[in-house]
Amino acid sequence: MNNKKNQPCQEDAGHPNLAQDARTNDAVDDGISRRGFLGFAAASIFLAHAGQQSPRSESRNGIPYRTLGRSKEKVSLIGLGGYHLGNQADPQESIRIIRTGLDEGVNFLDNCWDYNNGQSEIRMGKALRDGYREKAFVMTKIDGRTKESAAKQIDESLRRLQTDRIDLVQFHEVIRMNDPERIFAPGGGMEAALDAKKAGKLRYLGFTGHKSPQIHLHMLETASKNGFTFDTVQMPLNVMDAHFDSFEKLVLPVLVEKNIGVLAMKTMGDGNFLRSGVITPIECLHYSMSLPSSVVITGCDSMRILDQALNAARSFAPMSESARADLLAKTAKIAGSGSFELYKTTQTFDGTSANPQWLG
Question: What is the torsional sign of CA 322, 268, 15, 231?
Answer without folding.
Answer: negative
